[in-house]
Amino acid sequence: MSVTSNLTISKSLFELTPDMELFYFGIIVFVFSIFNAPILALIITTLKMKNAQSPNMAFLLMNIINFCLLGQGLGHLITFPCLMFPNLLRTFETVVRIIGGIMNTLWICDLSTVTLLAVSRVLTFSNIISIRKSDRIIRYLLILLLSWIFILLIYSVVFRNMMMYPPLWAYDFDVPFCHLFDTMELSLSFPCIIISFLSYLTIAYLIFVAKNLKSSVASRRNEIAILFQSSLVTGYISVMIFVWHPALFTTFQFIDMNDITNQAILNFMWLVHCYVNPCMLLVFNKSIREDCFRLLRTGKIDQPPRAAGTSIVTMS
């Protein structure tokens, strides 16, 4: 009797959704999410080894961002069956809510750290203060940021304020204080985007207009590559925030967020976001790209040149 009961429960848990659009979207999420962890694990390991050889606050911030992206990608990978088997969502709703809360917290940490990295870079590029002093300032800001993220994480896990409404993740406003935290997220998102863009516009001015950076031709190429990489990442995040909150932009009400396909595309944009930063890092940063390939082949990376520690511009 217990065997029959277990078979019945198993069958009911894995009963396919009648909505084939959700089923196909679940397959797409699975296919795209399985590559996220290996790519990010390689980059995180490489940056960790580079930071051990030549300590640099930029490497630490980049790895915090990559860790946040890794967590978000794993969240998509773990919860994709809920799109295909709705009974899984009903049965394990508490677990799904906790995962959703963690993913959302990592997204906020990701966005904030991207901004902090932009500020760190513009301080370094402008030569206003030394690298070491810049590191101290950024470290203090990072401690404040991580303290806030820890509070947000505890709230998300305890109150489970994020819920999957297939195919979309969204706040559950029946949860206490959810409106407050939603407002706080919006209040944080737009200043972060503005600060990031202003930082990279300043870097662009220093590179192309002022031309007062004391660097070699090779370093200048790296500076331009960093600018393009970071600008593209920030631009994608801006588009994602814009599309995620259409109610705030009345001019663009043609985006029907009640449509299942549009909701699926929006959720897919979140998944793609987990790839944008690492892919741009590999495309535009030759040093990190070569170290990643070298790590795959030999299990280690080359020692940095002795002069790297005295370079004015961080090659990250």
Description:
With 316 residues, the protein is mostly helical. The protein has one domain (15-302): Rhopdopsin 7-helix transmembrane proteins. Helices cover 76% and strands 3% of the residues. It is built from twelve helices and two strands; from the N terminus they run ααααααααββαααα. The chain has a two-stranded antiparallel sheet. β1 (162-165) and β2 (168-171) form a beta hairpin. α3 (36-53) packs antiparallel against α4 and α4 (57-79) runs antiparallel to α7 (93-126). It is globular. It starts with a helix and ends in an 18-residue tail after the last helix. 33% of the residues are buried.
Secondary-structure arrangement, i.e. CATH architecture: Up-down Bundle
Succession of helices and strands: HHHHHHHHEEHHHH
Summarize the main sheet.
2 strands, antiparallel
Would you tell me which CATH topology applies?
Answer: Rhopdopsin 7-helix transmembrane proteins
User: What is the name of the CATH superfamily?
Assistant: Rhodopsin 7-helix transmembrane proteins
Number of helices: 12
| Beta-strand segment tally | 2
Give the distance, in angstroms, between the N- and C-terminal Cα atoms. Answer: 62 Å
Report the uncertain regions. Answer: 1-9, 306-316
Transmembrane segments: 22-45, 57-78, 98-119, 140-159, 188-210, 222-244, 264-284
InterPro entries: 7TM_GPCR_serpentine_rcpt_Srt
Keywords: Membrane, Transmembrane, Transmembrane helix
